[in-house]
């Protein structure tokens, strides 16, 4: 009985403390992190979730524009975009003066000092420090002159010597640095916008030592004096944050969506961000339903009840003012041919196979009709993708498919041996090939499924022991080079071009395009390559998939972002709406 | 004094066990379903669409349809063919290996016994499913590998039992008598001892059959079993995603089909043991 009494009181206490949660006076945002946060050391931010938290406290030289799509870099700690030498090897970057680190006991008198270029050099060196084994080292490995040598030299020393100058990291004055690269690396700026290369201060690293990962001291819009490895992280507004303003331009239509209402206002717009770590999907869902979280990625199991027909938000959610965000991910799914196979070198056969596949039905069966049919390699949202472009062979047309198959030399599939598609032994992957096989049977082509464990599949593809295989590719950074490289001949197996596709003209274009800086010229190159390769059908193009988010009506300025670690400072909350709608929860 | 032979006795005992008779009936039913499906008389059109995607069971489609609108009932029947053929093939491979190795080890003893004992203890020390997975990985995917993998792993128990029985029998008077009138080793072993331990093979086969069916379902569920053919394992794999949407019929069809045959084999195995080896009854 005693135990029951205790449980009763504890429950009562929990209920009463929960209802106090709602705060209508302070501008605060409640978010959910679906994974535990490993710590606040930027050089180890290998997972999205740690990156998202680090992005609230630390900053990089560059960041992605929160509204503009395709994704565009804009200066953050840097004053402007860099000046790049004609050979693309030297990047000169100036940082803004007057940026202050957070107040911390690591500094003299506890007052944060000004950010200088030495901090940038120090932070880059930390990535290379052999004693720290940074998870982000791959980003700069073999890229900056002298950095690899410095790393090797220090590997055998008892302590890393940060005082030694490195040729590729040259301090010009207190606010200017010049990076010297070993070879052109146009994605270099993306590397500087990733959490790995966010700027830390030497004092804090030395002061906190091993505890540094729990004591983030950055320059960012929010402060977190101590990270207590708990399931709730509370950030407060950084009182010494520099003057930074909400952007006044975005993508077409952002104006109508109310995303420019705060244009020109000083950020951050909220006083507090509260992040709850909730791993299980049902508690996440319930927490959002009780308005204890403002934003949620819809758990897979709740999709059908929340999003009717894969498109429309369910009426009971709509009536509470919730909004649905569905956004194409930067990814593409495909069935890849192995172009080593003499049978599959036949272009008409590849085109016929593509046209016999009812993508509309596949989309309905596997993605609740939420995916977009991929026309070529580059997904929407990246430079090089053209909305109007339609691939004539990405269309369900059985008659045309039969005709092409006959032209390929296999009328009604006669004489064509069965084709095996290798995939991961996972339910949906298998079902998708079964669906594909069922479709192709109609024109007389026999498809067989080959199931593999993940390492087995990778092994088959790298050793070229496959006829076809299925894959989905997601962007590492917003540059179509990341996708086009999948068809570049020198990348053939064991590289990322598992199709072993070679097209001399494509390769020439690729070589000239990838050393270019981002801009219309490079986009034109990408467009040309994307559309040239589309009709060649090096793969059977599948889908660009969609992610679904729900937000409450009072959360303002949210826009889906693939690389979202710096996005949170732009969010806002409408307290009036929150007060009004909260009655419904 | 009962003058009936062991086999006749066993038959009478079995015939009195109603549950065993029902089990035999079920086993035969499954065999015929599998046979007819194998001959293409039934369920040969399983890959054809018969209706819309994921239709609930109705009079037209007794077990509903799957994600591609194929009849679940036809898939269950086709899965029966796969399961029964796997059981039979595994038994056909495992019995000769188990009987011959067990008999040789038990009869000759010495280094042969040492070797066989070492071999089967090694085999049985590796978790069965791991062994199965590695064999299918080496042989490649498909139903043939499943046959071989299951055959190659399931002889151990039979081998152990036969070895023990032969060890017991080889000192018996009838064997000594056979030796006294000039019978050689092979004659003693195969003509005299083996027929007297053969009931173990029958009991064991019935047990082995159901182990093979279960293993096939597990392998197919993991994507290592049959490819491009319906199997109860792949059906359960499909169902695990569909259940959230309330599509239960594929899971129900596959598990019920599995349930009845496994139960039947289990009861039959027990009944056979009671009938053929009455000393063990109730143990």
Structure write-up:
- The complex is a heterodimer of chains A (585) and B (283).
- Chain A has 585 residues and is an alpha+beta fold.
- Helix content of chain A is 29%, strand content 17%.
- Chain A is built from 18 helices and 24 strands.
- Chain A has a 5-stranded mixed beta sheet with strand order 18-17-19-15-20.
- The longest helix of chain A has 18 residues, at 2-19.
- The two termini of chain A are 33 Å apart.
- Chain B has 283 residues and is mainly α.
- Chain B has a single domain (3-51, 59-280), classed as Orthogonal Bundle (MetI-like fold), CATH 1.10.3720.10.
- Chain B is 73% helix and 0% strand.
- Chain B has helices at residues 6-15, 18-39, 72-108, 110-125, 128-139, 143-153, 156-169, 173-180, 185-221, 232-242, 249-276.
- The chains are: A alpha+beta (585), B mainly alpha (283).
- Chain A binds chain B through residues 301, 304, 365, 425-428, 430-431, 434-435, 437-438, 441, 448-453, 456, and chain B through 47, 49, 53, 67-68, 137, 141, 222-224, 227-228, 234, 237-238, 240-241, 244-245.
Using only C-alpha atoms, the radius of gyration of chain A works out to: 26 Å
- Count structural domains of chain B: 1
Show unreliable segments of chain B. none
Report helical residue fraction of chain B.
over 70%
The total strand number of chain A stands at 24
Number of strands of chain B: 0
């Amino acid at each position: 009985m005693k135990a029951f009494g205790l449980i009763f009181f504890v429950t009562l206490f929990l209920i009463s403390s929960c209802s106090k949660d709602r705060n209508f006076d302070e501008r605060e945002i409640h978010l959910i992190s679906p994974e535990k946060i490993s710590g606040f050391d930027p050089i180890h931010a290998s997972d999205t979730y740690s990156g998202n938290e680090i992005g609230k406290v630390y900053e990089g030289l560059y960041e992605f524009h929160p509204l503009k799509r395709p994704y565009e870099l804009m200066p953050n700690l840097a004053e402007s975009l860099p000046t790049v030498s004609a050979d693309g090897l030297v990047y000169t970057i100036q940082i803004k003066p007057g940026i202050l680190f957070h107040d911390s006991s690591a500094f003299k008198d506890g007052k944060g000092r000004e950010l200088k270029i030495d901090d940038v050099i120090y932070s880059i060196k930390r990535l290379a420090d052999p004693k720290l084994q940074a998870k982000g080292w791959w980003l700069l490995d073999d890229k900056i002159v002298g950095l690899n040598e410095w790393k090797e030299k220090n590997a055998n020393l008892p302590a890393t010597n940060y005082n030694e100058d490195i040729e590729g990291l040259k301090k010009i004055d207190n606010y200017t640095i010049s990076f010297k690269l070993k070879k052109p690396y146009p994605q270099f700026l993306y590397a500087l916008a990733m959490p790995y290369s966010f700027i830390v201060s030497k004092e804090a690293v030395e002061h906190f030592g091993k505890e540094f990962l729990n004591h983030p001291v950055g320059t960012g819009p929010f402060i977190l004096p101590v990270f207590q490895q708990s399931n709730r992280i509370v950030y407060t507004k950084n009182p010494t944050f520099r003057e930074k303003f909400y952007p006044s331009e975005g993508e077409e239509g952002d104006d109508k969506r109310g995303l420019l209402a705060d244009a020109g206002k000083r950020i951050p717009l909220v006083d507090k961000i509260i992040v709850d770590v909730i791993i299980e999907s049902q508690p996440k869902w319930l927490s959002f339903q009780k308005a204890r979280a403002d934003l949620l990625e819809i758990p897979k199991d709740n999709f059908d009840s929340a999003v009717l027909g894969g498109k429309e938000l369910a009426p009971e959610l709509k009536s509470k003012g919730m909004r649905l965000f569905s956004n194409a991910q930067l990814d593409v799914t495909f069935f890849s041919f192995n172009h080593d196979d003499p049978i599959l070198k036949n272009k008409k056969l590849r085109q016929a196979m593509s046209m016999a596949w009812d993508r509309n039905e596949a989309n309905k069966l596997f993605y609740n009709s939420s995916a977009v049919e991929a026309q070529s390699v580059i997904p929407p949202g990246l430079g090089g993708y053209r909305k109007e472009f339609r691939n004539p062979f990405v269309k369900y047309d059985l008659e045309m498919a039969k005709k092409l198959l006959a032209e390929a030399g296999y009328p009604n599939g006669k004489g064509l041996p069965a084709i095996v598609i290798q995939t991961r032994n996972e339910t949906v992957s298998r079902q998708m090939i079964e669906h594909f096989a069922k479709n192709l049977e109609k024109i007389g082509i026999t498809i067989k499924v080959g199931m593999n464990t993940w390492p087995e599949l990778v092994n088959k593809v790298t050793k070229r022991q496959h006829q076809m295989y299925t894959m989905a590719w997601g962007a590492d950074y917003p540059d179509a080079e990341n996708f086009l490289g999948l068809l570049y001949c020198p990348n053939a197996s064991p590289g990322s071009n598992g199709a072993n596709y070679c097209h001399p003209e494509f390769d020439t274009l690729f070589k000239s395009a990838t050393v270019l800086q981002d801009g219309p010229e490079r986009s034109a190159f990408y467009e040309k390559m994307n559309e040239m390769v589309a009709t060649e059908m090096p793969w059977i193009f599948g889908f660009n998939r969609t992610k679904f988010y729900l937000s409450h009506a009072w959360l303002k300025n949210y826009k889906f972002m693939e690389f979202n670690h710096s996005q949170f400072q732009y969010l806002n909350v409408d307290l009036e709406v929150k007060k009004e709608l909260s009655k419904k929860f | 004094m009962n003058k009936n032979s062991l086999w006749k006795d066993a038959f009478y005992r079995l015939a009195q066990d109603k549950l065993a008779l029902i089990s035999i009936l079920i086993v035969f039913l499954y065999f015929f379903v599998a046979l007819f499906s194998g001959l293409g008389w039934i369920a040969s059109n399983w890959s054809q669409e018969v209706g819309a995607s994921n239709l609930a069971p109705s009079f037209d489609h007794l077990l509903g349809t799957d994600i591609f609108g194929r009849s679940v009932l036809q898939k269950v029947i086709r899965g029966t063919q796969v399961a029964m053929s796997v059981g039979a093939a595994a038994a056909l491979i495992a019995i000769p290996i188990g009987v011959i190795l067990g008999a040789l080890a038990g009869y000759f003893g010495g280094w042969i016994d040492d070797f066989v004992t070492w071999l089967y203890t090694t085999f049985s020390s590796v978790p069965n499913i791991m062994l199965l997975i590695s064999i299918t990985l080496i042989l490649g995917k498909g139903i043939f590998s499943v046959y071989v993998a299951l055959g190659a792993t399931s002889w151990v128990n039979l081998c152990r039992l036969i070895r023990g029985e032969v060890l017991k029998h080889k000192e018996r008077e009838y064997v000594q008598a056979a030796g006294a009138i000039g019978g050689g080793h092979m004659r003693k072993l195969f003509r005299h001892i083996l027929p007297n331990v053969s009931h173990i093979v029958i009991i064991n086969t019935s047990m082995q059959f159901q182990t093979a069916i279960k293993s096939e379902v597990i392998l197919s569920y993991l994507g290592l079993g049959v490819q491009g053919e319906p199997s109860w394992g792949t059906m359960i794999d499909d169902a695990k995603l569909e259940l959230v949407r309330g599509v239960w019929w594929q899971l129900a069809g596959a598990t019920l089909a599995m349930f009845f045959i496994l139960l039947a084999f289990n009861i039959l195995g027990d009944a056979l043991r009671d009938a053929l080896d009455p000393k063990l009854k109730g143990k």
